[in-house]
Specification:
Length: 400
């Protein structure tokens, strides 16, 4: 029997919801590329309920306990005194979400001799030291595609929010104002602009598709070029590298994973090559951008705005400069954990666990690391190496 330790975010401050704004969510069977949605034998939750917080337990408790497994659920994940640090020493399986990542460093992996399987309930497994996972023979899997469309919608929303100066305008309403000039002195239309996508995978491609009707000029860079038919259908211009892309774009939306090739890709040097007044939206990973370089570029006006929902570390300490930098429209890491997405990734985690316990293979597209090397989506989208840090800094976050 296995010990499964699961790190999830806190319940809402007013307690676990008793009702929801809507009674159901759309039933989908396939993702846009034909991949089938998760196919667990059964689920023990109602799709559309809050599953990603501690009381939601990803809908797994009955399944795990009925099968004789031990199931630990905690929010306490950072620093040496955390519950996670204590429980991982005899855990067989660890589950966490990128929105509240259990940083699984090499030191922590070394403390967990029984650990075999690490599941990301979501997409993006950079909170795990993938090199240490490869060296230790662990399997790392994520729920590929579960929230890619959710994130693409959020990215489009944040592009429009920045350009149309939505959040400051909303704030004038709440302050009883009617300050049209204050609202519009930074407001522009997207129409006619050049938009650049870094990483045209599941999310990046969905953003391109969604932006097509805005009558913009669409550009992308990726280490895998899209098929000619896709480029023609959307009228895309391919750039062999990110420098060539950013030089001509008015808006850049980042959608590649965080791995050694992409860490701090957006640093002072790259930012200085962009047109003055470019907007960046980053819903990929915080560390793809150099934190302080972004602040400097907003302060100088080199960037007109920055938005996204990913930070480093997560949660960011209270004095993280992105909380207070000018002209930002950041949210906490929420884009991939809509109630719609939660139903998909909770079912995906269940599917992976069922496969694992039954000795059946996990779907190749879910694999990040297996058998000592990158596999599945990991082999396609990541490079080997490690850049998982952050747990000590995240421990400085204090709820207020
Ligand atoms: P994907 O694997 O389908 O696409 C990633 C793309 O990035 C691939 O096409 C890959 O070739 C490309 N890429 C890799 N290295 C690159 C580089 N150096 N330069 C340019 N392109 C590069 O994954 P996806 O579903 O589109 O997700 C992408 C990332 O978005 C995830 O890895 C994760 O970090 C992030 N994400 C964030 C959230 C959120 O809630 N904010 C949710 C899901 C995923």
């Amino acid at each position: 029997m296995a010990k499964v330790t699961c790190v999830l975010y806190d319940d809402p401050v007013d307690g676990y919801p008793k009702s929801y704004p809507r009674d159901d969510i759309p039933k989908l069977e396939y993702y846009p590329d034909g991949q089938k949605l998760p196919t667990p034998q059964k689920i023990d939750f109602k799709p559309g309920t809050l599953l990603g917080c501690v009381s939601g337990e990803l809908g797994l408790r009955r399944f795990l306990e009925d099968n004789g497994h031990e199931f630990i659920v905690t929010t306490s994940k950072d620093g040496p005194d955390s519950v996670f640090e204590r429980e991982l020493v005899d855990s067989d399986i660890i589950i966490s979400q990128p929105f509240w990542p259990a940083y699984l460093t090499a030191e922590r992996i070394a403390k967990a001799p029984k650990l075999k399987l690490v599941i990301t309930a979501g997409i993006g497994s950079d909170h795990i030291d993938l090199q240490a996972a490869m060296n230790g023979g662990l399997t790392v899997a994520e729920i590929t595609y579960c929230n890619s469309i959710s994130v693409s919608e959020h990215a489009v929303m944040q592009i429009l929010a920045l350009l149309h100066n939505y959040i400051p305008s909303y704030e004038w309403v709440v302050k009883n104002g009617w300050n049209i000039a204050d609202c519009v002195e930074r407001a522009y239309d997207l129409e006619g602009m050049s938009i650049g996508i870094v990483g045209a995978g599941r999310i990046g491609f969905a953003v391109l598709k969604r932006l097509k009707p805005f009558d913009v000029s669409l550009h992308y860079t990726d280490r895998h070029r899209l098929p000619e038919s896709a480029e023609n259908e959307l009228g895309l211009t391919y750039h062999p590298d990110v420098e060539s892309l950013v030089r001509i774009c008015d808006v850049v939306s980042i959608h590649c994973p965080l791995h050694p090739e992409t860490e701090h890709m957006f640093n002072d040097t790259l930012l200085s090559k962009m047109k003055r007044g470019t907007y960046i939206v980053n819903t990929a990973r915080g560390k793809i951008c150099d934190r302080d370089a972004i602040v400097r570029a907003l302060q100088s006006g080199q960037l007109a705005g920055y938005a996204g929902d990913v930070w480093f570390p997560e949660p960011p300490p209270n004095d993280h400069p992105w909380r207070t930098m000018p002209n930002h429209a950041m949210t906490p890491h929420v884009s991939g954990t809509t109630l719609s997405a939660q139903a998909r990734y909770a079912a995906g985690v269940r599917e992976i666990l069922e496969c694992w316990f039954d000795g059946r293979p996990i779907r190749n597209e879910y694999l990040v690391v297996e058998g000592g090397k990158l596999a599945g989506v990991g082999a396609h989208s990541y490079t080997a190496g490690n850049l998982t840090k952050g747990t000590d800094e995240a421990a400085r976050f204090k709820k207020e």
